[in-house]
Amino acid sequence: MLNIALVAGSSRRNSQSAKVAGFLRQRLIELGLTSTELSSVLDLGERPLPLWPADDNGPWNEYQQQLQAADAVVIIAPEWNGMAGPAIKNFFLYAGKAELAHKPGLLVGVSSGIGGAYPISELRASGYKNCRLCYLPEHLIVRHVEKVLNGSDVTSDDDQRLRNRIDFALDIFAKYGEALKPVRAAIDIDQPAFATGM
Ligand SMILES: Cc1cc2nc3c(=O)[nH]c(=O)nc-3n(C[C@H](O)[C@H](O)[C@H](O)COP(=O)(O)O)c2cc1C
Questions:
Q1: Computed over its alpha carbons, how large is the radius of gyration of the chain?
Q2: What dotted CATH number matches 6-45+55-190?
Q3: Among 83, 93, 142, 150, which is most buried by a count of CB atoms within 10 Å?
């Protein structure tokens, strides 16, 4: 069983990204891949991180402990103006190697329409260099988010197809989670000459 942290990357309270995080966490538990005790949602809308740098880092110390304990991380990124939103970008100024290095990261794009690919593309290009989070080749895009993943009742063919896709991706995600444990243990992340990525 894995310790899994899910980062709900919207700066809005009651966001759809947080709904998706809750759904994925529940599904990970139902599939026996984690447990209530071993999983956590870091909701950047409910408990925001101040814009970095800040005198008071808000909930960061608690988030840091949850991330350090995690074997694998889900990054849920809403698409805002064709970009990854500011809360998740700010998150990556706080989170570094100590929290994320060589852990599998499942990217999840969220859109109220047919978007959701831009934040995936943006984070694949920019979100991992120094923290060395390992994004899986598999990712998820939740389109028309208000209409899907609303509790246990399936409401449409699209909703069902997405749920099937989620189970497929979570299974792969958990396999990477187990596989990267010994890889992480074998890598020294504290080599000062190569502290940041190229
Ligand atoms: C400022 C802003 C800009 C947005 N721009 C886009 C966009 O470019 N493409 C898109 O598909 N959805 C866009 N949306 C809609 C979001 O996809 C939608 O709010 C979705 O629920 C994810 O955001 P949330 O997690 O904050 O709820 C935008 C929403 C906001 C608040």
A1: 16
A2: 3.40.50.360
A3: 142
The tens digit of pLDDT for each residue in 175-189 reads 999 999 999 999 999
Mean pLDDT for 140-148 is 98
Given ligand 1 and candidates 13, 111, 121, 141, which is best to mutate, with the most ligand atoms within 8 Å of its CB? 111
What are the residue boundaries of the structural domains of the chain, listed by start?
6-45+55-190
Instruction: Give me the DSSP letters along 98-153.
Output: HHHTT-EEEEEEE-SSS--HHHHHHHHHHSSTTT--EE-S--EEE-SGGGS--SS-
pLDDT at residue 127, as a whole number: 86
**Strand-pair partners of 107:** 75
Report the chain's mean pLDDT, rounded to a whole number: 98
**Cβ(72)–Cβ(177) under 8 Å?**
yes
CB 139 within 8 A of CB 106: yes
Beta-strand (E) ranges in 21-60? 39-43
Q: Is the CB of 90 under 6 A from ligand 1?
A: no
